C-alpha cells in the first residue's frame, strides 16, 4: 500500500456544518457526532490511519438514505457507507470528512424465493445472519470471505472467499441491486431473471464500486441448495510447487471441489501453536467437497490419487460435521494465529491474484522475498482461483519498518502484474492500492473516471477511493 494515497483531502467546512444541522434535526438520536461513534466508523482492519467522518447516521430505511444523500448532494458533502467495518484497504475512511451511513439497522431479509433460489436483503444483513435465516429452506448463500461481513459491504468490494472456486464471487451471485444515486433517487439495476440482455449491466457496475457511484439499499442474491453431503480433508506437501501442481491437476480434471485452501509452512507453524494442533509444518492444502453420498467419496478418492502423484502425504478426509470443524480449525484461525506470532506488532493484510498456472511461481518468489528482507509474513491462499494473502507483521511505530512494509507490498503487486495477474483478488482498491490500479489497467482507469464523473459529478460518494477524482 501507499500511505501517500491515504492522506486527507479538502474539506467543505460550510457544507459539512449545514448537513450536520439538517441531519440532527431530521433524525435526532439516530444521528450521532460523538467522538466514539466517529472513531468506530473510521475503523479499518489494516494499518492505514483512520480518517473520521463528521457524523454517523444509523439508517433504518431507504427513505432515510435518500434524505441523507439529498442533503449531502445539495451541500456537496461526502457520504460513505458502513457495514460492519471489515474493510482492508481503507474503504470506510472519510478522507474529506463527511457523513457515514451505518447500515446495521437495515438488516432485514426482504424476500426469499425458494423455488427460484434467490433472495433480496437490505445491505446491513450479515452473511451468517442470512444463512441462519435460510436454514429451514434447504438453501444457503455460499460466498464466505471469512469475516462475518455485511452483504452490502461484500457487494461493494466484489468480495469472494474460500468457496469461490465452486460458487464464484459476489459478481457471479448478485442478480440486482437498488441504489441511491447522486440526485437522491433510488434505482433498481435489474429484475430477478437469471439472465438478461436488456441494456447495460448496471448491476456489475455497482458491484465492486466500493460505494463510489451510489449507496446500495438492497441486494438480490443467488442461492444454492445445501449439499446432501459435505466432506473436508487436508494434505501436506513437500513444497509450494507440489501443492500448486495438485491444485492445477484437480481443476483441470474437473473435480468439483468446493474449497481448496493453501497454507504455507510459516502459517501452519502458527496454526499449530495457536490452535493446539499437530499438523505437519509444511505447505498444506485444505479441501472441501460438496455433493451426494455417492459423489463425495469419489471426489475425495480422485484428489487422493492426485496428491500422491504430486508427492503429497496421506490425504485424510471426513464427512463428520464435528471432525470437519476441527479439521478446518487451522484455516479458520489463520489470521489470529498469524498475529500471535508477534504480539504487539501491526498487521498489514494484502492480497493479489494470478492465473493458477503462475500461482506456484508467485508464492515461491514472495516467500523468497520475505526471507531475503528479514520480514515476517505468513501466506494463505484460495489456491483454486490463484488468489493469496500475505499478513505482514511489522512495527508501525518504526519509520524504517513502515518503509520496508510498503516496499514489500509494491514488489508483491508488481510481481503479480508481471505474471498477468491483478493487484487484488478480493480486498478491493480503497486507498491502499490506487497506484497499483493505474499500473494494472492504464488508460482504462480514465474511462472509470468518466463513469464516476457522469454518475457523481460532485464526488460526494466515498471520495478518495479507487482513484483520485478529476
TrEMBL record:
| Cofactors required | FAD
Q: Which PROSITE patterns match?
A: FAD_PCMH
Q: What is the lineage of its organism?
A: Bacteria, Pseudomonadati, Pseudomonadota, Alphaproteobacteria, Hyphomicrobiales
Q: Which UniProt keywords apply?
A: FAD, Flavoprotein, Oxidoreductase, Transit peptide
Lyase as a keyword of this entry, yes or no, is: no
Q: Does the keyword rRNA processing apply?
A: no
Q: Which GO terms describe its biological process?
A: lactate catabolic process
Its protein name is D-lactate dehydrogenase (cytochrome)
According to the UniProt entry, what is the EC number of this protein? 1.1.2.4
Gene3D superfamilies (UniProt xref): 3.30.465.10, 3.30.70.2740, Vanillyl-alcohol Oxidase, Chain A, domain 4
Amino acid at each position: 500500500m501507499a500511505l501517500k494515497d491515504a492522506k486527507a483531502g479538502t474539506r467543505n467546512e460550510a457544507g459539512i456544518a449545514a448537513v450536520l444541522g439538517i441531519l440532527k434535526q431530521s433524525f435526532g438520536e439516530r444521528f450521532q457526532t460523538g467522538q466514539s461513534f466517529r472513531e468506530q466508523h473510521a475503523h479499518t482492519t489494516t494499518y492505514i490511519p483512520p480518517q473520521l467522518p463528521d457524523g454517523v447516521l444509523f439508517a433504518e430505511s431507504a427513505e432515510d438514505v435518500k434524505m441523507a444523500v439529498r442533503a449531502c448532494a445539495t451541500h456537496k458533502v461526502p457520504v460513505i457507507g458502513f457495514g460492519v467495518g471489515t474493510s482492508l484497504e481503507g474503504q470506510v475512511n472519510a478522507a474529506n470528512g463527511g457523513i457515514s451511513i451505518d447500515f446495521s439497522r437495515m438488516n432485514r431479509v426482504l424476500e426469499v424465493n425458494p423455488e427460484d433460489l434467490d433472495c433480496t436483503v437490505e445491505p446491513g444483513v450479515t452473511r451468517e445472519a442470512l444463512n441462519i435465516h435460510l436454514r429451514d429452506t434447504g438453501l444457503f448463500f455460499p460466498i464466505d470471505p471469512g469475516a462475518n461481513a455485511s452483504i452490502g459491504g461484500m457487494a461493494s468490494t466484489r468480495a469472494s472467499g474460500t468457496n469461490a472456486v465452486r460458487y464464484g464471487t459476489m459478481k457471479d451471485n448478485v442478480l440486482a441491486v437498488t441504489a441511491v444515486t447522486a440526485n437522491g433517487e433510488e434505482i433498481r439495476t435489474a429484475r430477478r431473471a437469471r439472465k438478461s440482455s436488456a441494456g447495460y449491466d448496471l448491476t456489475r457496475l455497482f458491484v465492486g464500486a466500493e460505494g463510489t457511484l451510489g449507496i446500495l439499499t438492497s441486494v438480490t442474491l443467488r442461492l444454492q441448495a445445501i449439499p446432501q453431503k459435505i466432506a473436508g480433508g487436508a494434505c501436506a506437501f513437500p513444497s509450494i510447487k507440489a501443492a500448486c501442481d495438485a491444485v492445477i491437476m484437480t481443476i483441470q480434471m474437473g473435480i468439483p471441489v468446493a474449497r481448496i485452501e493453501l497454507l504455507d509452512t510459516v502459517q501452519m507453524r502458527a496454526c499449530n501453536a495457536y490452535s493446539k494442533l499437530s499438523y505437519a509444518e509444511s505447505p498444506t492444502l485444505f479441501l472441501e467437497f460438496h455433493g451426494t453420498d455417492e459423489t463425495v467419496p469419489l471426489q475425495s478418492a480422485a484428489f487422493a490419487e492426485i496428491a500422491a502423484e504430486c508427492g503429497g502425504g496421506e490425504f485424510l478426509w471426513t464427512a463428520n460435521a464435528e471432525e470437519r470443524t476441527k479439521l478446518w480449525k487451522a484455516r479458520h484461525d489463520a489470521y489470529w494465529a498469524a498475529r500471535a506470532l508477534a504480539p504487539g506488532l501491526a498487521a498489514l493484510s494484502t492480497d493479489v491474484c494470478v492465473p493458477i498456472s503462475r500461482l506456484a511461481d508467485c508464492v515461491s518468489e514472495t516467500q523468497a522475498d520475505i526471507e531475503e528482507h528479514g520480514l515476517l509474513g505468513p501466506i494463505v491462499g484460495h489456491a483454486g482461483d490463484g488468489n493469496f494473502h500475505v499478513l505482514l507483521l511489522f512495527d508501525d511505530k518504526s519509520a524504517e519498518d513502515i518503509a520496508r512494509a510498503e516496499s514489500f507490498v509494491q514488489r508483491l503487486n508488481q510481481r503479480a502484474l508481471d505474471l498477468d495477474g491483478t493487484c487484488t483478488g478480493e480486498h478491493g482498491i480503497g486507498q491502499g492500492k490506487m497506484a497499483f490500479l493505474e499500473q494494472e489497467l492504464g488508460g482504462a482507469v480514465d474511462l472509470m473516471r468518466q463513469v464516476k464523473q457522469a454518475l457523481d459529478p460532485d464526488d460526494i460518494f466515498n471520495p478518495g477511493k479507487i482513484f483520485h477524482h478529476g
